[in-house]
Design goal:
The chain is mostly helical. It contains four helices and no strands.
């Protein structure tokens, strides 16, 4: 159960990072509210998962999921250009996250 909460919390990290960017320095209210809600739930889920999982592993998985999804969202929206190096490095990041879970 802790792993499921951690994965969802990592996904919400990507949501709040994207909402923070879209809030335009907190001038747009909808992305600002989405940022506040998703950040709160994401952090609470991470904190809960850390009760049951090693802190370093939980944090690395949370950040890895959030960072990967945030970059992929940038690709989808056209804010970032998907180069071969970026895609390969994201694959390495995802493989590392899977590896951390496998050895935990």
């Amino acid at each position: 159960m802790a792993w499921i909460v951690l994965v969802v919390s990592g996904m919400l990290e990507a949501v709040w990072a994207s909402a923070l960017s879209a809030s335009e320095n907190f001038r747009r209210w909808r992305p600002t509210v989405l940022f506040l809600v998703s950040m709160t739930v994401s952090m609470a889920g991470l904190a809960w998962a850390m009760v049951y999982l090693p802190t370093g592993t939980a944090y690395a998985v949370w950040v890895g999921i959030g960072a990967t999804l945030t970059v992929v969202w940038g690709f989808v929206t056209g804010q970032e250009r998907p180069t071969l190096a970026r895609v390969l490095l994201l694959g390495l990041l995802v493989g590392s996250v899977i590896g951390l879970k496998a050895v935990s």
